[in-house]
Amino acid sequence: MPMSTENLPKCPACQEDMTYPDGENYVCAQCGHEWPIAGIAEEADAGLIVKDAKETQIYSPLMTT
Ligand SMILES: [Zn+2]
Predict the structure, then answer these.
(1) Please, which residues bridge with residue 25 across strands?
(2) Which of 39, 36, 41, 2 is nearest to 21 (CA)?
(3) Which of 3, 24, 33, 55 could make an S-S bridge to 13, C-beta 3.0–4.6 Å?
(4) How would you list the strands of the sheet with 19-22, edge to edge?
(5) C-alpha 7 to ligand 1 mean position (Å)
(6) pTM
(7) pLDDT 10s digits, 2-51
(8) Rounded to whole angstroms, how far apart are CA atoms 25 and 39?
(9) Rounded distance, CA 34 to CA 42, Å?
(10) How far apart are CA 36 and CA 34, in angstroms?
(11) How far apart are CA 5 and CA 1, in angstroms?
(12) How far is the CA of 25 from the centre of ligand 1 (A)?
């Protein structure tokens, strides 16, 4: 299978699918935006979990049924 951009994410900045990997980052050939290949999804998940946990902790005492 030849390398292609099909498995690469679209650029989050400009939504173009001209992404290419460069070391540990993806680089958008369209606008030059760079973002890490590894960890970005995990960071997002962790952030949501932490935020959700905090909100639960904050709101649970106020929203007791
Ligand atoms: Zn871009």
Answers:
(1) 22, 36
(2) 36
(3) 33
(4) 19-22, 25-28, 34-36
(5) 16
(6) 0.51
(7) 555 457 899 999 999 999 999 999 999 999 999 999 865 555 555 555 55
(8) 10
(9) 17
(10) 7
(11) 12
(12) 13
